[in-house]
Design brief:
Layout: H1 2-15, H2 27-39, E1 61-67, E2 74-81, E3 95-97, E4 103-107, E5 114-115, E6 129-131, E7 136-137, E8 156-158, H3 170-178, E9 185-187, E10 208-210, E11 217-218, E12 232-234, E13 239-240, E14 256-258, E15 265-267, E16 280-282, E17 287-290, H4 294-299, E18 305-307, E19 312-316, E20 329-331, E21 336-340, E22 353-355, E23 360-364, H5 367-376, E24 381-384, E25 397-398, E26 406-408, E27 414-416
């Protein structure tokens, strides 16, 4: 770490074509960005936007990728000058500056940034966006990131798809609360973070919290349910345990809830019906059990996807299912549901995926569902236990001709039809 700071200092003093004076208004900013470059090329250069090969020569053009915040896909290219070139640092690729040439965005995706994230970016007083998705950043999340008054302007911190380790600093949320911070989106999924979700997480209101695909352990902290402004909560693919408490009903603005592939257990609390804005409920491959609360069917009118496969849910599929008229994906496979598929499912005119295999269901897949798929000529997927039972030779569920895209038997064998 000291070595990279020395490199940055040496470049500013001896190699920078701008040769700034000690009182230059952009001296600190330029030093921090130079340090950012050296720190994130600890093991190898970036894929794009490295310093010009001719040293002090004039800047030339390079480009990097700008991601769409919802999909993570590249939607356009950002043009800018090489880093550590003669031009003002606001013209370096991936940098966006506001008035008075102060950095308000650093945006690099899939650019092979490597090494630890320098905490000194906290000294960029107008930084609002730090987007470093799909790189190779290592080391821990810097505790000092929100310890400086300048860094409290940061609104979006996107570090998904790196190799960051260690724990999530509880100090972040304390400092954000005490300093009246601006952070709205905290997205650090797909890293190698460990430990528990800090209890302090509820001290500062967020809109989007994405911690999926790490190695987090423990139960959901009670402070999490103080996040009443939360719209996205992605915690899937971690080693989380415990139950989903009734306090989940306090998150009334929640639109997306993902606990897929965790060890969360217990039953679904009926208070989940208070999440009237919920569009996606993902509980795939958890240890949850019991019946589905009627409130899910009667209250969650905005629900688009309901993913409950590979759990231990039981009971019947309620006829109230037909109230979820915005539903597009219904995945109930590999549970312990019994009874029949209710005819009211025909009200789900937007449905394009129906997975009910691996249960104790009987009867027939409603013909109306099949007719609906064909009439709309839309991509569809219907999977049910419509192969002959190995013991009886009779399918558990009858599927009208050409309706099911795959048929399964009680042993879990599935064949495309």
């Amino acid at each position: 770490m000291l070595e990279t700071r020395q490199k940055a200092f040496d470049w500013i003093v001896n190699k920078d074509p701008m040769q700034l004076e000690y009182d230059s208004p952009n001296l600190v900013q330029r030093f921090v960005l130079v340090l950012f470059y050296y720190q994130t090329t600890r093991h190898k250069p970036w894929k794009e936007c490295n310093p010009p090969a001719t040293g002090r020569g004039s800047a030339s053009v390079n480009f990097c990728y700008e991601p769409d915040y919802l999909t993570g896909e590249a939607t356009s290219t950002i043009w800018g000058d090489h880093w550590l070139s003669a031009s003002h640092e606001c013209k370096w690729a991936g940098i966006t500056c506001a008035e008075k040439k102060q950095t308000n965005e650093i945006n690099f995706r899939s650019n092979q940034l490597n090494g630890p994230l320098p905490w000194e970016i906290a000294y960029l007083p107008q930084l609002k966006e730090l987007v470093l998705l799909s790189n190779m950043l290592t080391g821990v999340l810097p505790q000092k990131l929100f310890s400086n008054q300048s860094s409290l302007t940061l609104e979006n911190l996107h570090l998904e798809g790196n190799r960051l380790t260690g724990t999530i600093p509880g100090e972040w949320f304390v400092n954000l609360q005490e300093g009246n911070g601006k952070l709205s989106n905290l997205r650090i999924s797909s890293n190698r973070l460990t430990g528990k979700i800090p209890s302090e997480v509820g001290l500062f209101p967020l809109k989007r919290l994405s911690l999926s695909r790490n190695a987090l352990i423990g139960s959901l902290p009670t402070g999490l349910f103080d996040q009443t402004s939360l719209e996205w909560l992605f915690l899937g693919e971690n080693e989380l345990t415990g139950s989903l408490p009734s306090e989940i009903g306090l998150l009334t603005g929640l639109q997306y809830l993902d606990l897929n592939h965790t060890s969360i257990s217990g039953s679904l609390p009926p208070e989940i019906g208070q999440l009237h804005e919920l569009r996606s409920l993902r509980l795939l491959n958890t240890r949850m059990k019991g019946t589905i609360p009627e409130a899910i069917y009667s209250e969650l009118k905005n629900l688009i996807e309901l993913r409950l496969s590979k759990c231990n849910f039981s009971g019947t599929i309620s006829s109230s299912l037909g109230l979820l008229t915005n539903l597009e994906l219904l995945k109930l496979a590999n549970n312990q549901f019994h009874g029949t598929i209710p005819d009211e499912i025909e009200a789900l005119t937007l449905l394009r995926e129906l997975l009910v295999n691996g249960n104790d269901l009987s009867g027939t897949v409603p013909v109306s569902i099949c007719q609906q798929f064909y009439a709309e000529e839309k991509a569809s997927k219907v999977v049910a236990d419509c192969l002959p039972n190995p013991e009886t030779g009779v399918p558990s569920i009858q599927c009208p001709s050409d309706c099911c895209t795959s048929c399964c038997d009680k042993t879990g064998v599935c064949l495309a039809t």
